[in-house]
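Saturday, quiet lab. Running sequence design on the structure tokens for the scaffold JK sent over.
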């Protein structure tokens, strides 16, 4: 098939390179010719699917530069404000314990768990060993890498009633307690775990975007230098896969790390200059983005502090952390509405449904109920009903992606 696509927004070379990359990794899509001239994409390809929606994501007003290495643009993304969040509080699905700390109930909690499990499955698919990461740490664990000395104002300290010294510190970075264990065993490998993480930031808290307590699904890789550097590409491709799978707008850029403040500023500059941190920023609207996760290349910073080495040479490490609440914020009210419709069609408790619910694993979701679901979903979101979509929308995740693609 031949296609001439005129971009509404002038694409630069970084955007064009990323569009070509995404097309080349699509299963069963063969690209025979690809070039852009005078804002027009000339494409000769073989594929049994519609390629226009993919190209549309790259027809973006977002400027790409040499620090942005991938972009996924969804024109259907709507602006987010605090109206929906306030509605959840009014419906008692979210309860404020204190500034930056919330309780989640009902479908909000199910969505949170579903997202956490989604990232866990991605980490386990990489072959990572599941571990438990504690939220309460010995202060000595942080002192080993000068974390308290350089970032002490961010920490939340624990004191016993009858003691005037620090009894512990609430974990400010999910990966920190792992290195001591690896040092004791002189062990390397790929590990994943979930941890509640705590950062004190005064009054600088806002909804799910910036919290005092939040959940992190963490991946840590400790290995020889060359293997760690090579594994970075695997993780970048994973982030691209997730953006496309969840049909979200965002981009991956080179950034710097919160680990390295104050006297670590040289390390922070080093990170940006030599591509040591990659951040996936999720798009809230045309102007605003929020960091959803990051890949942090530590070199031998932690392994040297803890003496984790292979003979005379220290191993190196990296970590990848997904901030669950921030992804929840992006997945907005569409999913809440979908689950409400599906639960009524199936006559099941909406708290039993989540992103992974489908026709095979959900009670009452038979062929008749499935047709009813599709009809009611189209009605609820003002979409044109077409019999061709019935066989396609067999899970809540597929319904969500379909609506994100077609909702005006």
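Result came back. Writing it out in full:
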């Amino acid at each position: 098939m031949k296609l001439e696509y005129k971009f509404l927004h002038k694409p630069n070379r970084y955007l064009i390179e990323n569009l070509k990359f995404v097309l080349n990794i699509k299963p069963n899509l063969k690209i025979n010719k690809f070039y852009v001239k005078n804002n027009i994409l000339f494409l000769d390809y073989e594929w049994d699917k519609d390629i226009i929606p993919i190209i549309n994501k790259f027809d973006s007003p977002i400027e790409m530069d040499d620090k942005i290495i991938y972009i996924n643009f969804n024109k259907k993304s709507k602006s987010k404000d605090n109206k929906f969040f306030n509605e959840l509080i009014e419906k008692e699905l979210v309860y404020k314990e204190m500034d930056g700390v919330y309780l989640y109930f009902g479908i909000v909690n199910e969505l949170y768990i579903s997202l956490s499990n989604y990232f866990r499955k991605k980490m386990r698919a990489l072959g990572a060993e599941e571990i438990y990461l504690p939220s309460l740490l010995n202060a000595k664990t942080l002192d080993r890498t000068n974390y308290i000395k350089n970032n002490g104002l961010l920490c939340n300290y624990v004191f016993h009633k009858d003691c005037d010294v620090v009894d512990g510190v609430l974990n400010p970075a999910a990966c920190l307690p792992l290195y001591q264990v690896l040092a004791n065993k002189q062990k390397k490998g790929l590990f994943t775990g979930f941890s509640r993480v705590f950062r004190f930031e005064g009054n600088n808290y806002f909804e799910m975007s910036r919290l005092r307590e939040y959940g992190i699904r963490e991946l840590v890789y400790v290995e020889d230098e060359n293997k760690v550097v090579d594994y970075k590409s695997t993780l970048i491709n994973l982030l691209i896969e997730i953006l496309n799978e969840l049909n979200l707008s965002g981009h991956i850029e080179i950034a710097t790390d919160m680990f390295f403040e104050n006297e670590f500023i040289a390390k922070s500059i080093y990170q940006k200059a030599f591509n040591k941190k990659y951040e996936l920023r999720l798009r809230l609207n045309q102007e605003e983005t929020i960091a959803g996760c990051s890949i942090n290349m530590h070199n031998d910073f932690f392994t040297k502090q803890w003496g984790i080495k292979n003979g005379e040479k220290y191993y190196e490490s990296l970590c990848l952390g997904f901030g669950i609440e921030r992804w929840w914020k992006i997945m907005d009210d569409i999913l809440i509405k979908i689950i409400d419709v599906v639960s009524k069609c199936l006559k099941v408790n909406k708290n039993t449904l989540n992103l992974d619910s489908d026709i095979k694993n959900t009670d009452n979701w038979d062929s008749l109920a499935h047709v009813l679901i599709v009809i009611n979903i189209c009605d609820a979101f003002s979409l044109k009903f077409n019999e061709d979509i019935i066989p396609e929308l067999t899970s809540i995740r597929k319904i969500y992606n379909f609506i994100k693609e077609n909702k005006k």
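Notes for JK: The chain has 14 helices and 18 strands. The longest helix spans residues 225-245. Ask whether to fix the surface positions before the next round.
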